[in-house]
């Protein structure tokens, strides 16, 4: 037995796309409450709630204007308290999204800070421009493309923003900022939060503001990624606040490598409990995931082996609100849709670590089916598209790449049923619903044996009852262009998992008793069918 957050499976909710309760087309907190029984029935023990705080929504809530209040689109603080209570009654814990690299420019700290004499001036990173103010203070470029500096007329200086210009970065050289953050943590932990998913947590401390070395994208990174000051902050938050509660943290750590991750989440470091890294979702991507390259299963196995064996505990995920749908990415949207979705469920739930399922993943939701840029909402997609066009990438190619990787792929509303509005809303959804909701929806799958949903449910239950799957060592056994085989060892058992990422049958010699198969077979004959997955006891 490990800690509760190692035993459980996490379900990520992107509130605006989960369940609308009042017909305004936007998912909300009462909507989430109305679906808690469904979440429980899947076998989930923890919810990660993407931001529900007050926000002008320039980046869908990742731009917070009041950390201790709720976005009226989603409901009220009373609704939020009811959500904690109702979840608890079902044995579900909730972790909140902690976005502390930046606030919204509409946060009162920032508004005050535009005044040079304000006590809030040092809450943010203000610098005069170069060349008499005409050029930004340095050459850094941000995560959403373009300079990381925005000129502010009112104070005649520039402020730093690693993300959108409506997301000014906080200044962690100022101890007052960290004190504010501690108050925010306490506020939510006292309300009942069981921990935090910490947004871009490895870039919050800027050691220097010197020019960055040449880079295609995200110039300046070496001055703020995984700095000593960053570790100091995490240790302090842990010691002063988090250690006083029964909670855990998962850090979203951008462009992180294994050595950096170890420094952030190995238990003896007393910083984070686990981290989200990205390598395993980028084996078929170049340049910040918008440019494709050929998928090789063997490469995926290498990446998995490195991280699975390198960290004591992993955060295991294949989807979130920033990533394309996994069935559209490593699976098949056509003939083998259901089978490949189940194969990917097998992957997710047989790795070592806490598994995270993103809403809709459990029914095999696919990427959006929009015809062009006009349906998109995501600020990143829009900026990246603009940049691609500026770099003379043909419109057709730029659109293909956006369609493949846009964050809006994951953000289309949850498909609950065949009803109009997919059971998500009775109004006009804030982002168009995927046209396949009549074929892919919760209600149909919930009722059908052998559905993707039922398979997730079964895999979750299987993991819950199997110590080897939870805590056994990960051992890579075999990989080629299309297939991978690995073992989980320990707990007195030896499990072998074989996965086929291709539409062709593959000969893979394996021995043992079949425990779980996504094709329903009980004997293995040495041939792994298209997108087949199999878990065996050896
Ligand atoms: O994302 C951080 C981040 O850098 C990447 O996920 C990025 O959005 C993209 O995948 C790079 O191509 C976090 C949040 O998850 C995201 O939704 C926010 O937009 C971002 O931080 C800013 O808060
Ligand atoms: Ca609503």
Automatic annotation (TrEMBL):
Domain of life: Bacteria
InterPro entries from the UniProt entry: Beta_galactosidase_C, GH, GH13_cat_dom, Glyco_hydro_b, O16G_dom_2
Coiled-coil segments: none
Domain Glycosyl hydrolase family 13 catalytic: 12-411
Pfam families recorded: Alpha-amylase, Glyco_hydro_42C
Name recorded for this polypeptide: Alpha-glucosidase
Family note: Belongs to the glycosyl hydrolase 13 family.
């Amino acid at each position: 037995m490990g800690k509760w957050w190692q035993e459980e499976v996490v379900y990520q909710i992107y509130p605006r796309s989960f369940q609308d309760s009042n017909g305004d087309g936007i998912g909300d907190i009462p909507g989430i409450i109305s679906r808690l029984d469904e979440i429980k029935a899947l076998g989930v023990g923890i919810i990660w709630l993407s931001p529900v705080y007050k926000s002008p929504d320039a980046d869908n809530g990742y731009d917070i204007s009041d950390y201790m209040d709720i976005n009226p689109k989603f409901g009220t603080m009373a609704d939020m308290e009811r959500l904690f209570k109702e979840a608890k009654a079902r044995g579900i814990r909730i972790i909140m999204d902690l976005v502390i690299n930046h606030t919204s420019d509409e946060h009162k700290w920032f508004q005050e800070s535009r005044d040079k004499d304000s006590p809030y001036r040092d809450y943010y990173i203000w610098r005069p421009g170069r060349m008499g103010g005409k050029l930004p203070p340095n050459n850094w470029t941000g995560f959403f493309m373009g300079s990381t500096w925005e000129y502010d007329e009112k104070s005649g200086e520039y402020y730093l923003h690693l993300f959108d210009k409506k997301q000014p970065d906080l200044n962690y050289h100022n101890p007052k900022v960290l004190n504010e953050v501690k108050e925010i943590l306490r506020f939510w932990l006292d309300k009942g939060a069981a921990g935090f998913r910490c947004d871009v947590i490895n870039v919050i401390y800027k050691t220097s503001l010197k020019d960055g070395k040449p880079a295609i994208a995200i110039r300046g990174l070496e001055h703020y990624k995984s700095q000593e000051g960053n570790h100091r902050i995490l240790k302090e938050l842990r010691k002063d606040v988090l250690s006083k509660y029964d909670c855990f943290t998962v850090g979203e750590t951008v462009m992180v490598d294994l050595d950096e991750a170890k420094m952030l989440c190995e238990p003896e470091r007393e910083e984070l409990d686990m981290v989200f890294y990205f390598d395993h979702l980028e084996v078929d991507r170049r340049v910040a995931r918008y440019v494709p390259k050929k998928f090789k299963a063997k490469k995926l196995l290498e990446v998995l082996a490195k991280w699975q064996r390198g960290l004591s505990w992993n955060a295991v995920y294949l989807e979130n609100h920033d990533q394309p749908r996994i069935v559209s990415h490593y699976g098949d949207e056509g003939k083998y849709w259901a089978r490949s979705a189940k194969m990917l469920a097998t992957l997710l739930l047989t790795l070592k670590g806490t598994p995270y399922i993103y809403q809709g993943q459990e029914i095999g939701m696919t990427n959006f089916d929009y015809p062009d840029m006009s349906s998109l909402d995501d600020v990143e997609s829009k900026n990246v598209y603009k940049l691609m066009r500026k770099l003379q990438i043909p419109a057709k190619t730029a659109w293909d790449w956006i369609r493949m990787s846009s964050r809006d792929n994951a953000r289309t509303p949850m498909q609950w049923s065949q009803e109009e509005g997919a059971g998500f809303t009775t109004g006009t959804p804030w982002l168009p619903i995927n046209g396949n909701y009549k074929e892919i929806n919760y209600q149909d799958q919930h009722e059908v044996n052998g559905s993707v949903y039922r398979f997730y449910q079964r895999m979750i239950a299987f993991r819950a009852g199997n110590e080897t799957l939870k805590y056994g060592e990960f051992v890579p056994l075999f990989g080629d262009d299309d297939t991978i085989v690995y073992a989980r060892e320990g707990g007195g058992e030896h499990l072998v998992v074989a996965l086929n990422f291709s539409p062709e049958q593959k000969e893979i010699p394996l021995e043992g008793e079949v425990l779980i198969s996504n094709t329903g077979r009980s004997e293995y004959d040495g041939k792994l069918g298209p997108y087949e997955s199999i878990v065996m006891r050896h």
